[in-house]
Amino acid sequence: MIQAKTQSWRKMILVAVGMLYLTALTLAWGQQAMVTPNYKEADLRQIIEAVGEVTQKNFIIDPRVTNAKVTMLSTTPMTPDAFYEAFLSILQVHGYVAITTGDVIKIMPDATARQFAGPLGTSSASGADDIVTQVLQVKNVGAAQLVPILRPLIPQYGHLAAHPGSNMLIISDRKANVNRIVSIIRRIDQSNDEDIEVVRLENASAAEIVRIMTALTQGPRSDGLSVSTSLVADARTNSVLIGGDKSERLRLRALIAHLDTPLEDGGDTQVRYLRYADAEELATKLQQHFTAQLQAASGQTGATPSSDSVSIWADTQTNALIVSAPQKMMRSMMLIVDKLDIRRAQVLVEAIIVEVIADRTAELGITWAVGGTGENSPVGVTNFPDFVPGVVQLGAAAGSGGTVDPTGLIGDGITFGLGRVSDSGVSFAAILSALEGNADTNIISTPSIVTTDNEEATLNVGQEVPFVTGSYSNTGSVGGAVNPFQTIQREQIGVKLTITPQINEGNSLLLEISQEISNIAQSAQGAVDLITNQRIIETTVIVDDGQILVLGGLLEDVMRESEQRVPFLGSIPGIGALFRSRKTDMVKTNLLVFIRPTILRDASQVTIETNSKYNYIRDVLRENSEGGIQLMPGAESFQMPPFEEANRSGKNSEAASEESSDEDGDEDGCVGVDRAPRPKSFLIRRRVTSDPSTPVARYRGRWQSVTAS
After folding, report:
1. Burial readout 456-487 (b: 16 or more C-beta within 10 A, e: otherwise)
2. H-helix or E-strand containing 555?
3. What's CA 264's distance to the chain center, in Å?
4. Rg (alpha carbons) of the chain, rounded to whole number
5. DSSP symbols for 237-293
6. Cα(446)–Cα(457) distance, rounded to whole angstroms?
7. Which of 28, 115, 221, 503 is most buried by its number of CB atoms within 10 A?
């Protein structure tokens, strides 16, 4: 048993020794195969010989291979195969190439390497720097289109060509570069998944969707590539045709689905209630405007315009617009209506017309007649046309016989007569007439009127006065019938104010004013009929809000002196007064027209101005009724209620109407208007009494007011 154990130990020792021997042999062979090449300025031929000794390869050197100097530094040992790869890299650096032909490797310049047979395909090449030829099939991109793109990546000794018939590329270059070129081609040669999709729309317009999507996709891309998507609208089926890359088509389909949603306000027909504008007038203008737009658009595209595409009509009872139009025009139309249906500012125009006329008249004259009783006795008579009646008129009336009415023979003023009539001796008669007349006309008118911006307003206050334009009397031959008549024309006398305001930027106003003042003149001298004074001002002015402006006026002094006399005798001092008649007229006219516009932009300003006028007339009525009603003791006169009470009922009804209109507006989708509560206001009147005698100062206090809220 001991002998068996001894033999077993011997066998184990022998196996271990054998293994150690084999390991030593392997290490010795590995140490002999590893090399560490280091060359400095060595000849290329020497390196070729060293590579041949280490790798046991056979080389044929082309005569064109020069004895170049090579420097190779290595710090780690390398195997013969790695040394050969480094050798191929050295050849590439110096412009040479190693071509394997059987058991021989030919070393020649790389410029002619593509002319020699080499490995076909990268898989048959052993090293990365081996010259290979690769034939590549291109499937989705034109091979000819890739040549100018890949040409800069091929060195001069390489080759790149395309065969359009088979859509193939032929590449000849080192294995590493060929692999790189093939990888680039694979990335470019991707299958095109472009297709045409039809998206049918249910709510939106296909043409409008295409316009929006085209504007979105036609912009320059961030990667610099051209846009490959296209969109076309089919109006007949209201569909959108999408062509392009699959990912782009998916993105566009998502956007179209988001836009193709029903409208909240009921499609292509809407009812719009107007608050301030006139529905009938606005409907006509909008219809003309958008019809012209459709005709212009159809003229550019060559299509026939549809008369039913835009329809606008007005409901006068509710002051509403009923509009049927495409969504694009509907939005544009609603924007226009929002701009036009606004509360326009109003303008209060107050005027003061002051006219003062002073008319002074003075007359003095004598007429006389002297005559004898004999046939040849001289007769002397004076008669002046402006001196009526005179001695001649009285004598003619006395000698006519019959009844004489003395009222037509006695003039105005004082008439003094003196004379003697006898059958013998000298008869004479003299009449002295004197007249002094004063006529003063003072007119102060304060018309006021409120109108909307750019709207003409007329105020006409006056009366119609009859004027005799003709008369006719007929004494009939049958029965002595008389049929007299007169023709009369009535003329309007008073104040007429016509104004058209235009509110400019800021607080200035452009006013077109026509002011007419007419009245009956109280002339100092009688006339055949009434005399009227007429003043007309037509002008256009620019005035600021609240500014007083004088429109114009007339300052006139007229003096007329007339004298009628007998030649030579009327010029004698003293007694010459018996032979002349004198008359003097003096008329002085002062006329001024003032105007003051006030812009009323909101309801609070309207309330303030109305409060002022209301309280003024209320105070006048209260002053006139302080003594009670004559002959009716105990009866109460009419009194106007305070402005706040009179306006309270109006405010309540207006608030109720606003609530109902807001509810209707929310229900019908109309735009609501927020209205702030009106502030309470009162008026403090202040008079300016710098010169109370002037009419302007008396009325200026009415214009200068202080408002508070």
Report:
1. ebebeeeeebeeeeeeeeeeeeeeeeeeeeee
2. strand 549-565
3. 28
4. 61
5. TTEEEEEE-HHHHHHHHHHHHHH----TT-TTEEEEE-SSS-HHHHHHHHHHHHHHH
6. 16
7. 503
CA–CA gap between residue 586 and residue 359 (Å, rounded) = 6
Q: How far apart are CA 372 and CA 421, in angstroms?
A: 10
Contact 653, 661 (CB under 8 A): no
**Number of neighbouring beta carbons within 10 Å of residue 612:** 19
The residue among 30 and 142 whose pLDDT is bigger is 142
| Residue carrying the six token digits 């969504």 | 327
Q: 331-343: buried (b, 16+ CB within 10 Å) or exposed (e) per residue? A: eebbeebeeebee
Buried b (16+ CB within 10 A) or exposed e, 655-666: eeeeeeeeeebe
- The amino acid present at 698, given as its one-letter code, is R
- CB contact at 8 A, 411 and 366: no
CA distance readout (Å), 678 to 341, 604, 651: 21, 6, 9
- H or E stretch at 316: none
d(CA 501, CA 510): 6
18: helix, strand or coil: helix
* Helices (H) then strands (E): counts for the chain: 13, 27
| 3 state SS of 363 | strand
pLDDT in tens, 519-560: 777 654 444 567 787 888 899 999 999 999 998 888 888 888
Asked if 541 and 549 touch (Cβ cutoff 8 Å), the reply is yes
More confident residue, 324 or 666: 324
C-beta separation of 651 from 610 below 8 A: no
pLDDT at position 402 is 59
Cβ atoms < 10 Å from Cβ of 654:
14
How many Å from the N-terminal Cα to the C-terminal Cα in the chain?
135
Quick one: tokens of 213? 């999507």
Other Cβ atoms within 10 Å of 291 Cβ, number: 15
State yes or no: pLDDT of 274 exceeds 90.
Answer: yes
From residue 698, give the alpha-carbon distance in Å to each of 354, 359, 598. Answer: 11, 24, 20
**123 phi/psi in degrees, rounded to 5:** -75, -25
Q: Which helix (H) or strand (E) holds 208?
A: helix 206-217
Question: Beta-carbon neighbour count of residue 249 at 10 Å?
Answer: 19
Contacts with 660 (C-beta within 8 Å, 6 or more apart), sequence order = none
Give the strand pairing for 58-61 and 104-109.
Answer: parallel
Q: 13: how many CB neighbours lie within 10 A of its CB?
A: 10
**Rama region for 343: left / alpha / beta (φ>0; ψ in -120 to 50; rest):** beta
